[in-house]
Structures are given as C-alpha cells and as structure tokens.
Amino acid sequence: MTQIDHQVHPVGPVAGSRIFRFIAFLYGIAAYLVFFVTILYAIGFVMGLVVPKTIDTGTDTPAAEAVIINLLLMALFAVQHSVMARQQFKAWWTQYVPKPVERSTYVLFASLSLLLLFWQWRPLPTVIWDVANPDLAVTIVTLSLAGWVLVFTSTFIINHFELFGLHQVTNHLVGREASPARFKTPLLYKFVRHPIYLGFIIAFWAAPVMTAGHLLFAAVTTLYIFVGIALEEHDLVDLFGDEYRQYKQRVSMLIPWRKSV
After folding, report:
1. Other Cβ atoms closer than 10 A to 197
2. Which of 64, 125, 136, 196 is the most exposed place for a label (fewest CB within 10 A)?
3. Can you tell me the distance from the alpha carbon of 192 to that of 182, in angstroms, rounded to the nearest whole number?
4. 214-243 pLDDT, tens per residue?
5. Which residues neighbour 168 within 8 Å (Cβ) at sequence distance 6 or greater?
6. Which sign, positive or negative, has the C-alpha torsion 171, 175, 180, 182?
C-alpha cells in the first residue's frame, strides 16, 4: 500500500519538476476543452438545436424505463458534482491527485458524466405545453438563450478560468503561488447570490415546447440546484464566516432585488 501511494502521489521534486508542470498544464487545457465542448452541446441538447441528439430525440423506450434511466443518469451527475466539490473529499482526493490539477480533474469528471447523460438520455415525447403563437415562442427561446448568457457572464465576473481549472495549472506552470481566497461580490453578485444557477433555471424552463422528458430534466436539475446551493453555502460560511452570513442577509439567493430571508 505504501508503494502504491508513492507511485500515484507525486511529491517534492517530481511534483515541482518542469516536465510535470508542463504535463499538468496540458492536462488542464484538455480538461477545459472537454468542458467547453460539453457546455456547448448542453445548450443544443436542452434547446433542441444543431446537435445530433437532443433532450427529445433518441432511443424509444417504455416510459417507466426511460424515467428510471434518466433519473439514474442525473443522480450520477449530482453525486459526482456534489461529492467531489466538498472540502473533506478534496482533502482525501489530493493525496492521490496532485493539487494543481484537482480542479481540472473535477471539471473533467463532471463533463464526462454530462456527456454520458446526453448519450444515454431517453426521450419522453409527451407534450406538456406547446406555444402556438410564433412571436411568443421566439420570446421564450430568446429568454432561454439569455439564461445561458447569464451563466457564462456570471462565470467570467468571478473568475471563469479559476472556476474551470486553467488558472490553477497556469500558476503551477510558472511557479506562482495562488493567492488566498477572498470574499467578493462583483456586479451581478450584488443583486443575487447565485446568478449562475439562476441562469441555468431560466435556460432549462424557458421552452416553447415542453415535453415530459424536458420537464423531468428541468424539475430534477432545479431540485438539485437547491440542494447544491445549500451544500455550497455551508462551505462558504465555513470559509468566510460572518462575512458570508451578512451577505446572505443582504442579498437574495436567486431572485434579484427580492429581500433575503
């Protein structure tokens, strides 16, 4: 067991060597590119645009079986996404995965679990609502696109490249120490605590044609978002203490300008 630990956990000069830093940098870029392709595919998957397989296309499956498969796929993503983000898991995980690539590895695993979901998703084509008015339908599609724009904008407002691991591997490549975490609330974060999650909710629910499969996806992911917020804010309170508690009192969780409760 000790020999295995030494093999999988680079330390000292190995972890700090130029070749390791360069390999870690390439790995971070590769993980980011996988994420970028995945998020672009996600837009097409949810909105039914361009991509070969969308939320409403794929293998015909009995409804009960389709629901079970889809729930398992979403549960796999939720477990991976939540467990790997927790500090306790990171403390254990970085015994085996070098710390500079920990975030990139998390992003890569999340992307792969989403790609699996897109590949194996079973459509449930029953129509829940269908907006017949073309002008209203276009407005709803525009609203969905606005949700995706909000997601991307919010990531860049905080630090897009740190969020998805590139900042960490770049710092490691040039031998620069990461600065300590500081609490900040730039732009949109002054009006809502979680604009990224708000963007996802808008993007998932703003559909001119809502099928049973799309509704299942939107409902379960929205439920997961609320669970994710609870877990994330617990970690943020642990990290920033009263500073984050006061922020929660001042700023609404998801609805801009609504008084926090």
Report:
1. 23
2. 64
3. 18
4. 999 999 999 999 999 998 898 889 888 989
5. 28, 100, 101, 102, 103, 104, 162, 178
6. negative
